[in-house]
Amino acid sequence: MRCSARRRSSTSCSRSARTTSPAGSSKPCPSTSRRSSPPRRHIRSEGGTAMSTPTLKDEIIEKHGQNALDLVLTVYLNFYYSELEIIDLCARWIPRREDLREKSYLLHHASDEVVHARLFKEGVERLGLVWDEFDHDKYRIDDIDQRFRRLFESDDEIEVLIGLNLYAEGVLAMEELHQLGRNKPEYFPEFARIEREERRHMGFGLTVAKRLLDEDEDTRRRGIEYCKWYSEHLENYLGGELSQTISWAIGQGFVEADYIPRTRARFDETMSKLGLVEV
Questions:
Q1: Compositional bias of type Low complexity: which residue ranges (predicted)?
Q2: How far apart are the C-alpha atoms of 26 and 168, rounded to whole Å?
């Protein structure tokens, strides 16, 4: 699931994106440890006795078990913290771009991610949890943090475009958003909308990356090497850290049985648009 290792406090909103999700951008086996949560809402029965109203969190646990709730939280939290990373990454590159249209891509991109971060936070709160009252760190994926740190430290724009717009968003996040939003819209009601907007971000990346690759042969050579690195990363990511979670998610109907081959196909299709791989 979402692609993007450092620990933070559970309420931190600083840059970053630990269990693994089936996907996005873009998750290891869900934790089964307990966490604090707000009390259920109470209503009065006709006799005046207080009765608790089940939350969406309760519904998920009752229908799919604790692992499902852990999976849902892993998805939402890693997407949320990834958006914070992306906002900072866009801000880093805005002053470096000279073309006004390409500057505007980054402004639109960052603005969208502010909205998406809010939607992911609201997704957690819709479950019946209070955002600041449970441990976020147990759901964070180390690999995501490591990849975003690599991108934030890079001064090679083609590396950032391939790693962020095309791989993290165009491959991992897009497949995760698509499948979870289609199969479990009751848990991920905003994912179809977010998927459409992430597609725009991929388009921004393709436009700028094509220009850079066409202008300089050395840039194209580096682009091919970055593409190879992410291809190897994808195989290790899906086949190692995520394999058990993906199998479990398939069994519970969160994602389709062909999740892994579809993600591979999405990678090849995306990178082929830049002429970096042959399909």
A1: 10-36
A2: 7
* Domain hosting residue 123, numbered range: 41-272
Q: Is position 9 within any domain?
A: no
* Nearby residues of 84 by Cβ (< 8 Å), 6 or more positions away: 13, 14, 15, 16, 17, 113, 117
In tens, the pLDDT along 134-178 reads: 999 999 999 999 999 999 999 999 999 999 999 999 999 999 999
Instruction: Say how far apart CA 134 and CA 67 lie, in whole Å.
Output: 16
pLDDT single digits (tens) 242-275? 889 999 999 999 999 999 999 999 999 999 999 9
Phi/psi zone of residue 275: left (φ > 0), alpha (ψ -120 to 50 degrees), beta?
left
Per-residue pLDDT at 42: 47
Q: What is the mean pLDDT of the chain?
A: 87
The per-residue DSSP string of 234-247 comes to HHHIIIIITHHHHH
| CATH number of the domain residue 50 falls in | 1.20.1260.10
User: Which residue intervals of 65-97 are DSSP H helices?
Assistant: 66-93
Q: What angle do CA 59, 198, 108 make, to 5 degrees?
A: 125
User: Is 69 part of any domain?
Assistant: yes
Number of domains comprising the chain: 1
Residue 84 lies in a domain: yes
Residue 204 placed within a domain: yes
Token pair for 24: 């996005």
